[in-house]
Design a protein that fits this description.
about 210 residues; alpha+beta; NADH Oxidase; four-stranded antiparallel sheet; 4 strands; globular; Nitroreductase; Nitroreductase/BluB
Length: about 210
């Protein structure tokens, strides 16, 4: 058994058994998520856990309505079909017993004020902000959450495909936390056995450069 087996237990789970997830288990997973690294240790995340099935279903319907609205702007049928065919993936969380929304909060970019003071170009400022350290913090927390879930018999699916409906979801959820916005979400539950698989990964040689 490899010391890294806990990594390979994680899969993107889209189908769940009809089994409740105890609140204490959820708290343990969120605690694990908060032990992710974050720039300047700002921990600029906030987790909203929804266990009410009617509310989860309503969020799925919000995504469906927004999808239909955006699809109506398509210039042609091909563009419309390309967009709407992914709707089923954007609402797969509706069959999960738990939905976790991860919000990102304010983050201070140390060099930003200095670049502005020196009259930096928009390209220089763009290059500073492009790595999106604030969102990297959220990504690290999400990965911790999913790894912890997989290692304790649960599963989830990192989702950002609903981001086009973020404003509407935020309004429905009603979280009042200054400067925070919905960045990603994951369903959570006991996975169907058929879901315990991962797509093939690129060869290590393709994604690795070693400089000695």
């Amino acid at each position: 058994m490899s010391k890294l087996d806990f990594i390979y237990k994680r899969h993107s789970i889209r189908k769940f058994k009809d089994i409740d997830v105890p609140t204490e288990d959820i708290k343990e997973l969120i605690k694990a998520a908060t032990y992710a690294p974050s720039g300047k240790n700002l921990q600029n995340w906030h987790f909203v856990v929804i266990k009410n099935k009617e509310k989860i279903e309503e969020i799925a319907k919000i995504v469906e309505r927004k999808n239909a609205e955006l699809a109506s702007y398509a210039e042609n049928e091909r563009m419309k079909k390309t967009f709407t065919k992914y709707l089923k993936y954007s609402t797969l969380f509706r069959n999960a017993p738990v939905l976790i929304l991860i919000y990102a909060g304010p983050y201070s970019f140390t060099a930003l004020d200095l670049l502005k003071a020196k009259g930096a170009s928009s390209e220089e400022i763009h290059n500073l902000l492009r790595p999106a350290t604030d969102i990297q913090n959220i990504a690290a927390a999400m990965e911790n959450l999913l790894l912890a879930a997989a290692n304790t018999g649960y599963g989830g699916c990192w989702m950002t495909s609903t981001n086009y409906a973020s404003k509407e979801i935020e309004e429905y959820v009603g979280l009042k936390k200054e400067g925070f916005f919905l960045a990603a979400l994951t369903p959570l539950g006991v996975p169907e056995e058929s879901e315990l698989k991962s797509p093939k990964r690129k060869p290590l040689e393709e994604v690795l450069t070693i400089i000695e």
